[in-house]
Structures are given as C-alpha cells and as structure tokens.
Amino acid sequence: MKKLISYIFISFLLCVFSACYKLEVPITSALTPDVFPTDSTQFIAASGPAYVALRGNIGVEYFFMQTLTTDEGIFPARGGNWFNGAEFQQYHYHTWTKDHAGVNGNWVWFSTIIGTVNQSLAILGQNIPEGSSKKTTLAELRMVRAIAYYLMMDNYGNVPIDTVSGDFSAKPNVPRAQVFTFVENEIKSCLPDLSAVSGVSTYGRANKWTAYALLAKLYLNAEIYTGTQRNDDCIAACDNVIKSGLYSLEPANTYLQMFYPDNGPQMKEFIFAIPFDPAWSNTFPFRSQNLHARYDVPRGLAATKFKLPFTPDGAISTLPSFYANFDDPNDVRNRQWLTGPQFLADGVTPATVTTTKKGYDQFYTGADGAAPYTYQIDIKPEVVLRQDVNSFDAGNDEIAWNMGYRNIKFYPDATSLNRNQKNDIPLLRYSDVLLMKAEAILRGGSATMGQTALSLVNELRSQRTTSAALTAITLEGIYAERCRELVWESWHRNDMIRFGKYESKWGFKTDADVNRRIFPIPTSALQLNPALKQNPGY
Predict the structure, then answer these.
(1) What is the spatial distance between Cα 192 and Cα 199, in angstroms, rounded to a whole number?
(2) Could you give the number of structural domains in the chain?
(3) Where is the RagB/SusD domain (predicted)?
(4) Residue range 392-396: average pLDDT?
(5) Which residues make beta-bridge pairs with 270?
C-alpha cells in the first residue's frame, strides 16, 4: 500500500541566501504563540519544510552529479538536444568549472537544507521539557542536517559549518577532516533521542538505524576524508543495524519492486528513503521531483510499452565498461536494464517505430530518404558521437536515440501526468549495510557475529541470483557487487573514489586529475562569502 504517511507543510516563503549560505525564511502566521505545536503530531508536521528541502535535487541534479561523472551513466546530446552548454559533457570529461550549473545547484541545495533545519531548530527547540517526545523530532531534524553535511562534505570537501539560525557572519570552509568529526559527533549526539522503531510510523524520518547506517558510510570512507581508516568502527555501526532485527533482504521476486511507483514503508530493506508524490507542493527553488522515466526510458517505448502520457528525453544510458559487471545470466538485477531488441509488455510482440529512412539514419544518402521505414527497437551498448564529437552529439535520428543500454530501476510511473513519479528514492538500504561490513572486513577490520566478507556477500547474492554461491571474495568482487546492487542509487561516484577507480579512463573521458574527486566551490558562493577558500586544482 503506497504512502501510508504524508507530510503536513507549514506555509513558507523562500527569501534570501546569506554570505554563509544561510537561508532565511520569513514565517507566516502558521507559527505564533497561539498556534505553536503542542503535541508530537503537530511537532512532526511543523518540521515539514526540512523534508521538502531534502527532496530537492536528489532525484535529478544530484543523481546527475553522482552518475554522469562515472562510467555508470552518460548523457550525450542528440541533434543539439541536451547539450545544455556542455553541462553533461563536462561531467563526463571531468572538465567542470566553478561556474558549472550542477556544481552551483547542488551547493545551493545542501545549503538550503542546512539553513532550513537551523531555522526549524531555532523555532521548535524552545521550551522543550526534558524527556519530551518532541526531542525525537528535533533529533530527526538534526539528522536531516547531518545527511546534508555528509553529502556536502563528500562532494565539496572543505565546507563551512554553521548551526545557528540568524547568524549572517561569513563562515570559512573548514578542513574536510573537521567536517567529518562534526558529522560524526552530530550523529552520535542524536542517537539517544532517535526512535528505535522502523516502519510506517517513522518512514521518511531518521531513526536510530538511519544514524548507524550513516555512521557506517562515514567510517567506510574515513580514509578518503581524513587519511585514517575506521574499518572497525564501520563494522560496529553495521552490526547495530543488523542486530536490530528490523531489516532484511528483499527476495529475488520483490527486489525490483523496491523501486516501483508503489514502494514505501513495506519495503524491508529501506532504512531511510525520501518519499515522492506528484501531488505534493514545493516552496523551494528546486524540482523536488523524481523524473527518472523522463531521462531513462527510450522515447520509442514510452507510449507502447510503458503507457507514459508524455514523450521522455530518453537520453541517459550506461557505458559498456559498467554494464560488464552484469555478467551473471541468473541474476534478477539484470532485469532492470533495457538491452537489445525490445518487445511490448507481453514479452512477445516486437516494439516497433515507423519513421522514414532518413529519420532512422540521418546519414542515409539514398534517393528514397523520405520513404516510410518501420523497425524493431534495438538498443545497442555503445554510444557513438556520430554527429559531432566537440558538441558531444550522437545524432538526431533513431539510431542515436537507441544508443546505450538503459536502466529502468525506478520503474516508470504511468499514472503521473506531469512526469513526476511517486517512486520513493532510498538513500540507505540494508543490502548496502551488508556490503559495507563485508568491504570493511576485507580492508582490515575484524570480523564479528560469525560473519565473514564471503558469508555476507553470499547472503546478499542468495536473494539475487540462482547461481552457485561464491567460494572466495576480493575487494574487486565487492566493487562489482556494489555496481550490481546499488546501480542508479547515486553511490557509484563515492564507490569509485574509494576503490581508486575515479581517475581511470572510460567512455570518452581520459582525465586522471585526483583533484576532481571533489567539486569546486561555486562562483556564486565565493561572491557571497569572501571567507571561503577555493578547493585545490580549481
């Protein structure tokens, strides 16, 4: 049953970003002494703006930044469409600058979340009795801020730390290791007040297990962030989630359903997910939408196979080097890909498109170029820049539109009339916890609870493939398993950096600059805040 919860939003008006990226939001009469929240339900409702902000860029611009900068995804232009001032070309080639639209947009998104939480805490944190259940809501809000700080640190390295609403003094960005410590301490200080319950009542809000899963993510990457490994701490955090007994792996027959439009609190693997619904409003300057079908579905299949009421851009695909990880024919995770000849929903009827010979191949030179031409859609693995290499252009014909295998993990929502899907987007899943623990063990951590790296990976694979269990596991095997399990979930850039693969060659990209592991501080932020110092290499 979809969406057993719903956010109740206070009316907020977006106002101004300060020099230290503070977001100030004038409060309407919704929060006055007469109507200030007096019970837990009202308190949760009053925290709504932070969750509206959190939805922000996660389904589009943040996904682009984490995916298109890796071998997981490529977004070429097609006949000039989607060149977007070289925005996606720069992601692929690792040539982005401090003026890149996505670099700026995601910085503003993180800053908005932080500023909104700071203000909500300042308003709602007044006169809270000791032991009050309202303290849980405040801890949940701080966890939203901790998530934003973690993602901001992961992407931008040295960032400012600010937890005080109304302080407009310019804040310098501090060393990444210091941000790491801040996030770690913030999560730990929230733990005593967070709910230990999982399910409908806490869905979409952080509980204790969200905190432990985020700590595990922090510790697994600690050597990247601070220069010191924290593998045993990662394992301990994972163990807390595992021992809770509240989460389990979805079996093979429901794995794909985790990402369907009707997903929600019933999914046993979701530790923390961000809910979406096309009916929800948004008062921030972000999409706050899940637009996966718009970018993932080949346009020739939109109306016939997926019954979509709009024509998708159908422009994002994977690269052969990434798809090579899907080498087990018995793995259910293969079914999230569209590859080769395509058929309608019955699996038998060929999916065809009628165009012209010239419409099929713009380079066709025959005299009958205007003659009708019907073909079965056949999605090819390679992306070829047939029209123009400099403008990252594959061409404006059917051949170009069917280049590159497509991922439809976030299955198209045919009920939405505005392209915004109601598929919730998971940020932390139980399978990720198992893989993090396995990796931490292989990186030198001590095995616990009778579990080994091999047993943990085989536990996951037993619910994903009918192939025989593995007899050995290496870090390379963990990396491949993470590619299969977490594809399209915005963790691949993080993984490639940790595994030392981010500077490798793939697709058309040859750049090996390690400074590209983090993004530059945007020009707009530097102009607003003179205390900021640009990241190395920019």
Answers:
(1) 19
(2) 1
(3) 396-507
(4) 96
(5) 429
